[in-house]
Design goal:
Strand content: 15-25%
Helix content: 25-40%
Number of strands: 16
Organism: Chaetomium fimeti
Structural class: alpha+beta
InterPro entries: Adhesion/Biosynth-related (IPR050904), FAS1_dom_sf (IPR036378), FAS1_domain (IPR000782)
Keywords: Signal
Number of helices: 17
Radius of gyration: 22 Å
Protein name: Fasciclin domain protein
Shape: elongated
């Protein structure tokens, strides 16, 4: 079961809490090297044997997340400032590291690399680091602080077997043809991306992680890059964090448990994990590999050809930078439309309407996490990329609210997003009433925000957004709502005078 959970970890999600933007550091690799790394990541996922069977147990986890989302939503709507003034509460979890900024564990005279090298529980991760000079140099760098999430040796026992030893190319390590299994090892580019995904720029002690939703990493996927020529503006891939209320039980990407932490080093902090963090695949791959919640959406993408347009490469793919936000309706959300509407949408006659409907759920070049925002072309506020100890709006014991209008792929028709946070809880509401039931599913090319209802675009010449009457909408009403969007040539969508965060 753990190997199933391990696979889900990378697909499920990532969040960040707004914080001080860190100073730009020298990039770890050239753009060409990063492209090779990310091609390796997607190729690794594409080559997984029996991926559908491996992902099938994930249904229970998603169902539980949906059931618990109402609690998150309720608590996150509490006016945090009034609550803090009227009813101050002590911190519900003690810091694991004792007293002081970083606790008393670790050795502030040694680097992160030296500490994991000498520790008997992190030998396997240290062996991987030794094979990549740029990672070793990063963990020995004393000019910048970093936080390392290091899997213990036991975590490596749950790595799923992979049927291919290459990442989209011929990278067979079994050069001696001795069938010793080396050819089944992941390629070097994939391992390099994996190592970077365990490193966070800046200091993230446990108390900060407990109140965060996502964390930036040293992995910079090309699909999240800006369209500028400067590689220093690349957006980092994120890790989703989730802490159980009242007890210090923290999971990363749903599956990896933070078992201990706040080990101080000369150049940062170390936390230990019971599982490996896998770099996530693309949005469409996640949808395809999770049929329990997304089989209807996957069919819609395939039927309309949008799966190819939204892919991160290949013929027919949309030009993208800065990632994208996909408001992914669950199977239950499609069922709410009723059997007649679904029958029409998935008929040959209804295919153009289905295409328009799905395009309204897609935003390209703008990635909105519950506490972070990336925009192509060098924009975006970079929330959550802080290196300092300061806390931004919406982070820590207080709460925060922010709003953004995102241009959808349906002629740029805006999708409104309202986000409110309180004490680690978060509520994301789309178009005024549609709740995000599973937040921040991190992907190679952006984020999945799972919604419990299908989004219906407004009347073409009316202001506002689609209303709750969508669930009771007849086929004719749906056609009347969508038909105006079929009359013009489809555009990729874009931002023109949209609201900022």
């Amino acid at each position: 079961m753990k190997q199933f959970v391990l696979l889900f970890a990378a697909t499920a999600a990532a969040l960040v809490t707004p914080s001080v933007v860190r100073k730009q550091q020298t990039p770890l690799a050239t753009n060409q090297d990063k492209t090779a790394e990310q091609n390796a990541v997607q190729a690794w996922w594409d080559a997984l044997p029996n991926a559908g069977n491996l992902m099938s147990p994930i249904e229970d986890r998603i169902t539980k997340s949906i059931q618990h989302s109402s609690l998150d939503s309720f608590l996150s709507l509490i006016d945090s400032e009034e609550q803090e003034e009227d009813h101050p509460h002590p911190r519900p979890w003690p810091p694991h590291g004792g007293h002081g900024r970083h606790g008393h564990r670790g050795d502030p005279d040694k680097t992160i690399y030296e500490l994991i090298k000498e520790n008997k529980h992190t030998t396997k991760f240290a062996e991987l680091v030794d094979k990549y000079d740029e990672i070793k140099q990063l963990l020995e760098d004393t000019k910048h602080n970093h936080t390392l999430f290091v899997p213990t040796d036991r975590a490596f026992e749950h790595v799923p077997h992979h049927g291919h030893g290459h990442c989209g190319g011929d990278d067979d390590d079994d050069k001696n043809n001795n069938n010793d299994g080396d050819h089944k090892k992941p390629c070097k580019e994939f391992i390099l991306a994996l190592l970077k995904y365990h490193i966070t720029p800046g200091l993230y002690p446990l108390h900060r992680i407990h109140t965060s939703h996502t964390l930036p990493t040293e992995l910079h996927p090309p699909a999240l890059d800006t369209s500028t020529s400067s590689s220093s503006n690349n957006h980092p891939q994120r890790i989703r964090t989730s802490t159980t209320p009242l007890i210090p039980l923290t999971h990363l990407n749903f599956h990896a448990r933070l078992i201990t932490g706040d080990f101080a080093a000369k150049n940062g902090l170390i936390h230990a994990l019971d599982a490996i963090l896998l770099p996530p695949p693309s949005q469409t791959t996640i949808i395809r590999l999770l049929p329990a919640p997304f089989s209807t959406l996957a069919l819609a993408l395939q039927t309309t050809g949008l799966d190819k347009e939204l892919s991160t490469g290949g013929e027919g793919a949309l030009p993208r930078s800065g990632g994208g936000t996909f408001f992914a309706p669950t199977n239950r959300a499609w069922e709410r439309l009723g059997p007649r509407v679904n029958a029409f949408l998935f008929s040959e006659r209804g295919r153009p309407f289905l295409r328009a409907l799905v395009r309204y759920h897609v935003v390209v070049n703008e990635t909105v996490y519950s506490d972070g925002y990336y925009r192509g072309g060098g924009g975006g506020d970079g929330k959550g990329e802080g290196e300092g100890e300061g806390e931004g709006e919406g982070e820590g014991v207080g709460g925060g609210y922010w709003h953004v209008d995102l241009p959808s792929l349906l002629h740029g028709k805006p999708v409104s997003v309202d986000i409110k946070t309180w004490k680690g809880f978060v509520s994301i509401v789309v178009n005024g009433f549609v709740q995000v039931v599973v937040r921040d599913g991190v992907a190679d090319d952006g984020v999945l925000q799972v919604v419990g209802r299908v989004l219906i675009p407004p009347h073409r010449h009316h202001d506002g957004h689609g209303g709750e009457e969508a669930e009771n909408m007849s086929v004719e009403e749906l056609k009347d709502r969508l038909e105006p969007y079929l009359e013009e040539a489809e555009e990729s969508g874009g931002r023109e005078n949209m609201g900022d965060l």
